[in-house]
Every structure is written in structure tokens, then in C-alpha cells.
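Fig. S4 source data, part A: sequence.
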Amino acid sequence: MTREIHELLERAMTLSARDRAELAGSLLSTLDDAVDENVEASWQEEITGRVRDLDNRKATTVAWPEIRDRLVQKLHRGE
């Protein structure tokens, strides 16, 4: 990390969380302007299929507290 970048980072860290998030989003948006049309279409197809599976009861949802508990258990077991 160059000195200039280090100084910018130090200044950025003095911003509020909201301002840091906005800055990070702005910086990330400059990294890749290209949108792959195929990826967007694939995601739309995936979403449509998942909604259809939920509607047809081929899939079910799990509440966040249950997922969180499962993850905590796995972490404690070292998985």
C-alpha cells in the first residue's frame, strides 16, 4: 500500500459508517462497468425457478434464527 493510499484510508476511517459505506460503494462501482447480459438472464431464470419451487412446495424456507444457530454449532464443532 502506498503512502498516499494509506493516508486516504486513514482519512476515510474517520468518516461515519454510513459515509464509509457510500464511499466504498462508489469506489466499487468504478471497478467494473461491463454488465454481462447472460449473467443477468441466468440470475433471473434462477430466481424464477426458486419462486416456482416455493409456490409448488418443492422447497421450503428456514428462519434466520435457526440458520444462525446451525452456523454457531458448526463453528463450535470446528466444521
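Fig. S4 source data, part B ends here. The mean pLDDT is 92.
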